[in-house]
Amino acid sequence: MPVNNVAENVLGTIGTVLWTGQILPQIWKSWREHSTEGLSIYLVFLWAVSAIFLGVYNVSQNINIPLIIQPQLFGTFCALSWTQCLHYTHKRPFWFCALVLAAYCIVGAAFETGMVFISQHQLRKGNSRPVQFFGIFASVLIAIGLFPQYWDIWKRKKVVGISYLFMAVDISGGLFSLLSLAFKAQFDIVAAITYALVVVMDAIVLIAAAILNPRARRRRAR
């Protein structure tokens, strides 16, 4: 596709808005029900950690402003969902969860800032391996994060505790972010793999819900 900075930033902005807000339905659902049953704590924890590594990669590569902001907000909301799991499922006190969230933000920001300086210094020396590591590792964490959720679905033979709106918005955010990369002067394959993984692996959860949940209802009706 031809280079188009306007299209790149518009699509990136839409992707950022969707990815920023995608986990809010899950946070709302957990708060409203005072329960995170069925939501894998490992999913939201690993996604929160992956956002720090993706942030290092996106900032170092100077992809575009929306996609630079995106992992910062995504990570914060995933960390908030993680602390909900600690509070509702693991019965940790509210003050403890608030400290965990604050620690994530402080340590994550310090780590990301330091790694960006190191990665950019290495890029100026012609060494792209450190920044490529952060991008690839973010993809790996995003993928690994969904496997515990798949295991929970397999055990229950149904999808429980997951907001379908969360999954749908996550997929949409991944698609728009992926499309924004197509209008860059140089297509970023590592970032593209990250967003494509989110789209495919989230879609598996929705497909599982469409197949398994009606079966579970029929079993209960017998």
Strands, count: 0
Give the overall form: globular
Q: What helical percentage do the residues reach?
A: over 70%
Percent strand equals under 5%
Q: Please compute the radius of gyration using only Cα atoms.
A: 18 Å
H/E series, N to C?
Answer: HHHHHHHH
Q: Tell me the major beta sheet.
A: none
**Structural class by SSE content:** mainly alpha
Helical stretch tally: 8
Mean pLDDT: 85
Spans where pLDDT lies below 50 across 5 or more residues: none
Distance between the termini: 55 Å
Keywords:
222 residues, 8 helices, mainly alpha
Task: Walk me through this protein's architecture.
It contains 8 helices and no strands. Helix content is 82%, strand content 0%. Helix 1 (5-21) packs parallel to helix 4, helix 2 (24-33) runs parallel beside helix 4 (65-88) and helix 4 runs antiparallel to helix 5 (94-124). With 222 residues, it is an all-alpha fold. The protein starts with a helix and ends with a helix.
Layout: helices, strands, pairs:
Layout: H1 5-21, H2 24-33, H3 41-61, H4 65-88, H5 94-124, H6 129-156, H7 164-181, H8 189-221
